[in-house]
Design goal:
Elements: E1 2-8, E2 11-16, E3 26-35, H1 38-44, E4 55-56, E5 60-66, E6 74-77, E7 80-81, H2 87-90, E8 101-102, E9 115-119, E10 123-125, H3 132-135, H4 138-154, E11 162-166, H5 170-181, E12 186-190, H6 194-202, E13 208-209, E14 216-221, H7 226-235, E15 236-244, H8 256-261, E16 265-268, H9 274-285, E17 295-299, H10 303-311, E18 319-323
Parallel strand pairs: 11-12, 11-14, 12-13, 14-15, 15-16, 17-18
Antiparallel strand pairs: 1-2, 1-4, 3-5, 3-9, 3-18, 5-6, 6-10, 7-8
């Protein structure tokens, strides 16, 4: 098969790679669409020691099952593989499984390839009328769905349901869409990149601003840098909630004194539960998350160029989806 392989810092190679061999209980999937995630960019820049070269990145995938009892089924892929037997898994908190694995991280190769293999339990069937590029959005939107749900659950019922989302990439936009689907209608998205901000306003119908002002009961940091954490802790309302999704930078930014004195809840959140993934997929299929027509499509063969353009800030769309067969 053809694959896009991370070979080192800011280096990707498009070449032949071994076909995956499905283990017992797994299915071979022909990948029809795979999105570029911020974590793929972190690895590409050499900022993620969990993803050493050489490695096939990519974990936002949808495709068609090849062979076996599910042959021909159109599926979207939950890339988080968990043990199913630990206390976290039994409690429906699979994202906290101590033995969790995710494709695009050893020992599992990723989905920037023409084929992957996944357990049957990680597959959600996709209706015929849902394009693969939209079905592949189940993974990134599930991250934001989980964060939005945690934030709303933690918000005191006396507080207004208003939200600030820091970052207008796919995770930030998805957080806004998820919050809206959960009944929050007053949402501001902070995006400093003028090209992307204009796209969010003109194409996605978002209330996007360069620099947010005021205070917000809910703040979702979909970037995760010291600067955005500083903004989050400054603009979170007294008694409010910060949900921190981004993994951009490890340290700095939070005003712990203000958060303590003003009783601001901070929630670190990573991935999603299996139920969150299924709920997100259902919301995509029934249209609750909107048209989802904000992806730029390119071929996997042009994947290196896509990463270079993202690195240079030349991409207006919140998400690039690659076609391994285009």
């Amino acid at each position: 098969m053809k694959a896009l392989v991370y070979d080192g810092v800011e280096t990707l190679g498009y070449r032949d790679a071994p076909d995956p061999a499905p283990a017992t209980g797994e299915h071979l999937i022909r990948v029809e669409a795979v999105g570029i995630c911020g974590s793929d960019m972190h690895a590409y820049l050499g900022h993620d020691a969990r993803r050493p070269a050489p490695l096939i990145l990519g974990h936002e995938a949808a495709g068609t099952v090849q062979g076996g009892p599910m042959d021909g089924k159109r599926v979207t892929v939950n890339p988080l593989v968990t043990c199913g037997t630990c206390a976290a898994c039994k409690a429906g908190r699979e994202n906290l499984c101590p033995d969790r694995q995710i494709i695009s991280m050893p020992p599992r190769e990723g989905a920037f390839a023409q084929f992957i293999s996944m357990p049957a339990t990680n597959l959600v069937e996709v209706p015929e009328d849902v394009p693969f590029d939209k079905a592949a959005l189940a993974e990134p939107i599930a991250v934001s769905w989980h964060a939005a749900k945690l934030a709303l659950d933690a918000l005191h019922p006396s507080m207004d349901r208003r939200a600030l989302v820091l970052g207008g990439g796919a995770i930030g936009l998805a957080a806004s869409l998820a919050l809206h689907a959960m009944g929050v209608t007053d949402i501001t998205v902070a995006e400093p990149n003028e090209t992307r901000r204009s796209f969010l306003i003109d194409h996605c119908g978002q209330n996007a601003v360069a620099k947010p002002e005021g205070s917000f009961p809910i703040v979702i940091d979909a970037v995760g840098y010291a600067a955005t954490r500083e903004t989050a802790s400054a603009l979170a309302a007294s008694g409010g909630v910060i949900a921190h999704v981004g993994l951009g930078e490890d340290l700095g930014g939070l005003d712990i004194r203000r958060m303590t004195l003003q009783e601001i809840t901070f929630i670190g959140t990573y991935t999603y539960t299996a139920q969150d993934f299924r709920d997100t997929a259902a919301a995509i299929f029934d249209g609750r998350l909107g048209a989802l027509d904000w992806c730029e499509q390119r071929s996997l063969a042009d994947g290196f160029g896509a990463f270079q353009d993202l690195r240079a800030g030349k991409v207006a769309a919140p998400k690039i989806v690659l076609n391994p067969w285009g």
